[in-house]
Amino acid sequence: MYMKLALDMAAKAKGQTGINPVVGCVVVNGGRIAGLGAHLKRGEGHAEVHALAMAGENAEGSTVYVTLEPCSHHGRTPPCCERIIEAKASRVVVACLDPNPLVAGRGVARLREEGIAVEVGLLGEESRRMNEAFNKFITKRLPYVTMKTAMTLDGKIAARTGDSRYVSGPESRALVHTLRHQNMAIMIGVQTAIADDPELTTRLSVPALHPIRIVVDSRLRLSAKARLVKDRTSRVIVLTVEGADTGRRAELEAHGVEVLNCGSGDRVDLRMAMHKLGELEIASILLEGGGVLNGSMLEVGLIDKIILFVAPKLIGGASSPEAFTFGGFEKMSEAIELSELTFERIGSDLCLTGYPDYKHLPEAD
Ligand code: AOF
Ligand code: ZN
C-alpha cells in the first residue's frame, strides 16, 4: 500500500524530471504516514528529502518506502543516504536498485553499514518500467525511443490520397498529447513535416510541457515557414548530413533552428544522430513517423518501444502510406517480434504496446 502510493506519486511526475528518474517516497511511523514526496525537477530535492522534511521528528524510527535506491553520490543535490541516516530511520524498503553507475548498490550498502534494515524488490518491476527511459540513458547515454503511430487494421497511416485526418479516435489522440508531455523530444521525418505541417506541441486540457521538436531532413527541405519553425514554444533541431545546402542551413538557423550534421552520406546516419542527441541530454524521444522514418529506425534497431493505436477501419490502397516502410525480411522467422505485449481498448481503438526484439539484427544497440 505504501510503496504503491510512492509509485503513484512518481508516475504523476513522469515527463517533468528531464534526464532524472521519477521517484516517490513515503515515510511511515507507528502505522501512520508521516511524510510523502516525489522528485519533481532535475536539480531540486529528491523524493526522500521532501518526504523526510515533511516527517520532521517523526522520521526517527520510521520505515522509509522509496521507489528507487536512495542515492549515495553528490550530484546536483547531496546524497539521500546520508539524509536518511541523519533522520534516524530504522528501516528502508526500496523497489529497485538505481542503475546509475555512480550509485548501483552503493546506496543500499551505505544504509546497511549504519545498521539500517534494507529490503529491495517490492514492486520493483513497476518502478523499473516507470523509468525505462532513465534506465537506458544513464547506462548508455542514448535516448530511449518510443514509437507511436495510429494505423488502420490493414496497417495504413493514411488513405491513398494522403488524407490522414483522422485514423484514430479522439480518446487515442488525447493520449498522444500525454505521451508528448512525458517525452523530452518528439521526432518526425521531413516528409511528414511537409505533408501535415504539424506544430508538435502538447495540447492537453491541463498545463503541460512541450517536447523539443526534431526533424530528420537529409536535404533540408523543411520550410522556414513551417508551423513548427514559426512556433517558438520549444527548440527545433533538424538532423541533416554534412553535404546539405549551406544556404538552406543558414536560413533555418536564422529562424532559430539548430541544425546537426549526422554523417557524410546522402541520408542521415540515424545511429550517429542518436549519439548526438544523447550528448545534448535528450533522454527520451517520441517517434511520430511517418512510415519511412519508422521503418528506417526499426531496421537499425533504434526503436525501444512501440505503441500502436489500431483503428477498426480498412482503407486499402497498395500505395497508401504504411506504419513501417522498409525493405523487409525474406523469412517470417527473421521478423522483429514484440515482447511483453499489452493491449487496451481506448475509445473505439485498440492500443497495443510492446518492445521490439532485435535478436536477428546484426549488432543492434
Ligand atoms: C534518489 N532519489 O528522488 C532521485 C534519485 O543530480 P542529482 O543530485 O539530482 O542526482 C541525480 C541522480 O540521482 C540520478 O541520475 C539518479 O541516479 C538519482 N536520482 N535518487 O535517491 C530521487 N531522483
Ligand atoms: Zn537522492
Which runs of at least 5 residues are low in confidence (pLDDT < 50)? none
Fraction of residues in helix: 25-40%
Structural class: alpha/beta
Number of domains: 2
Strand order of the largest sheet: 10-9-8-7-11-6-12-14-13
Task: Give the class-level CATH name of the largest domain.
Answer: Alpha Beta
Beta-strand level of the residues, as a percent range?
Answer: 15-25%
* Ligands (ions, cofactors included): ligand AOF, zinc ion
Average pLDDT rating: 96
Cα-to-Cα separation, first versus last residue: 37 Å
Radius of gyration: 23 Å
Which architecture of the largest domain does the CATH hierarchy give at level 2?
Answer: 3-Layer(aba) Sandwich
CATH superfamily of the largest domain: Dihydrofolate Reductase, subunit A
What profile does the largest beta sheet have? 9 strands, mixed
Total strand count, please? Answer: 14
Give the overall shape. Answer: elongated
The helix tally amounts to 12
| Helix and strand pattern | HEEHEHEHEHHEHEHEHEHEHEHEEE
According to CATH, the fold-level topology of the largest domain is Dihydrofolate Reductase, subunit A
